[in-house]
Amino acid sequence: PTVRAEYSPSYTKEPVKISLDGNDGVGSGIYGYYFSKEDLPSDATKYSFASSNDQTVSFNGTYYLYTVDNAGNISKVETVNINNIDNEGPTKGFISGGRTSWTSSDVTIKFGCSEDNKVGCGQKIDYTIYDVSNGRNNLLARSSVNSSSTSYTFHVDDLVVAARGDDDAGTKKEEWKEENRKASENYISQAKVVFTIYDNVGNSKTLEQNVSVMIDKVPPIITLHPGEKLRRSKWWGLITTGYGYRMN
Questions:
Q1: Contact of 143 with 116, CB cutoff 8 Å
Q2: 43: DSSP letter
Q3: DSSP alpha helices (H): ranges in 95-195?
Q4: Is the pLDDT confidence value at 111 over 90?
Q5: What is the per-residue pLDDT for 156?
Q6: Among 75, 100, 159, 230, which has the minimal tally of Cβ within 10 Å of its Cβ?
Q7: CB–CB of 89/205 below 8 Å?
Q8: pTM
């Protein structure tokens, strides 16, 4: 007898269904089938064969198939190479954008699927973005888009209340503490992007990466402190965050 395997070669993440077809011409008729990743043992008889001709394959690989007729005649070996089961996510993802110096302008990043070496990048991305500046973990965005890539723009509102320095007298401590808390929310130095990309059969891969954002919309504040006489003149100290000025 002779035997062949019929199946769909299209990529799938599900097990592949295989139908075995035996032909014995005008002989005694097909008794059964053998299908395995291991070759048929040399001492096999027709009772080593199963009656069902339907098989299910869950893993890629080379499989051996035989058939046997009712008289015990065994067919020549045939092989079938299953390589269309794809249960891995996309090969590569990407994220671009960010910057390395402080500015008050918005910044846009782009991220998504860049490569899948089997079925191609799918049209779906799930993402979550956090502000992780200075130990924070504030949720900025969570969304899902029907695309292989997407973008996100970081924006911080302008702040009227400026950051305060130390209050030597202690009279403004609580008021300035609240103002500094508000000011601290109006910059983003670093963000964390967690995004899931998909291929065209639904497999997914989740990636995570920190990006440098560096948006600062906190205006500095200047305070004046009268100083003592210095070389026959009075001076004023201009105190800003990180800078000192002297006026004679």
A1: no
A2: T
A3: 173-184
A4: yes
A5: 84
A6: 100
A7: yes
A8: 0.75
